[in-house]
Amino acid sequence: MNNLEQKLNPYMPSWEYVPDGEPYVFGDRVYVYGSHDKFNGDVYCMLDYVCYSAPVDDLGAWRYEGVIYRKDQDPANKDIQGNLYAPAVTVGPDGRYYLYYVLSSWGLVSVAVCDEPAGKYEFLGYVHYEDGTRLGEKEGDEPQFDPAVLTEGDRTYLYTGFCGVGDKSRHGAMGTVLGPDMLTIVEGPVFVAPGEPYSHDTSFDGHAFFEGPSIRKKDGKYFFIFSTQLFHELGYAVSDDPLKGFEYKGVLVSNGDLNIDSYKPADKPMFYCANNHGSMVQIGDDWYIFYHRHTNGTNYSRQGCFEKLTEREDGTFEQAPMTSCCGLDPLRSEGTYPTYIACNLFTDTDLTYVPWTGWMDDRFPRLTQEGGDKMPGDCKIEAPRGTEPVIADFGSWRVANYGYIANMRNSATAGFKYFDCKNVKKMSVCTKGYATGELEVRTKWDDEKPLGSFTIGYANEWQETLADIEIPDGVHDLFFTFKGNGHLQFAAFSFIK
After folding, report:
1. Which segments does the entry list as coiled coil (predicted)?
2. Which residues neighbour 295 within 8 Å (Cβ) at sequence distance 6 or greater?
3. Known catalytic residues?
């Protein structure tokens, strides 16, 4: 098994951008549906829906299922002015698979249907009241956004909504019940979680509903997952009833690792964050949270990740830290790893979000890739295999297949979790760029003294630099910090036996 066959974040190929992940187990596979961003995209969700799946007993073996629905299939979108925002899928009373979505160009809920989880979905219709009026067009309706669905018997619970901070014109997340035809409203809509203006005397205060509703059922209770008013975190609320009584319980994941104080201060961001959207799923005996991170210095090239959740005795969950290994088995300290699996990326300037103008500016490192947007089949060169350091092939495999970290300026740090280190005495890094200085290695982000460092010089081609780096045996984080001048590009690192 080579390193890229381990369970790594992001779990899809490094050139794939599927945010807003909704995971479901159908049969013996877990399927992930999401919106579809474009590398170097300039708005959200520019591409058609695709699906990835993996065996429930091997969450490292993800398979591309292909395009399952095109945006021009919606009759209202023949001019392709609308993009396909975050979808959700449920199995109807007839055993077919129903895909719910909202186009970016209007606030109505569209539905497509298929006989299999990842086949070719066909447009079915729009969610509507019994008189035919579409949800979102009736007087008093609020615009529909980010649907989530859960089917129980012949009733399907549909959750939608968006409410920005300070926006009193919208009230929060809505719950609506559909009949067995999967289109017709039989109850609701009602508000199930408040937006920020209406949250201050509730359990949601400080973590009010913003967008991205999702719904799951666990131990007879309904778990409502959503993006909070803080953007970077997925919070959740729990109720005994699918349409009322939800109480906020905490955060499942933050795409900046905020709130976590186990390895750094709780308010220190360890990744550059913006919106977040995803959900949880039970696979075997364990629960996992799927979410997305931001790359390329923009809001519009988001990648899916997942982490294993830790359940408390009362059935709630601890917040999962971001990792390079999906919160599962630590990675082996052998062979070569691409740096796009960094779960931490930060500088000595603590910043969670740079406002809309450019989002991230030239002060900060970013995950990116060579060339333009890629699709399956574009990348022909396989990753290096085995445990030997790779020198001559660094450039070819990285350029063809993988992302890398760009623009590492003085103090920029890339962190990786976790490695099971055994007998590590020597390492190498693959870098280039107009940079001179030291690339230091630590097992804690704030250790005053590094374990060792690589001497970096100017290079306009990818090159390997070796150094004596001795890491104590045991499971560790690894942090690489650049101290020097210029801007470093960092593609890979190797453990050398």
Report:
1. none
2. 17, 301, 302, 303, 366, 367, 368, 403
3. 20, 211
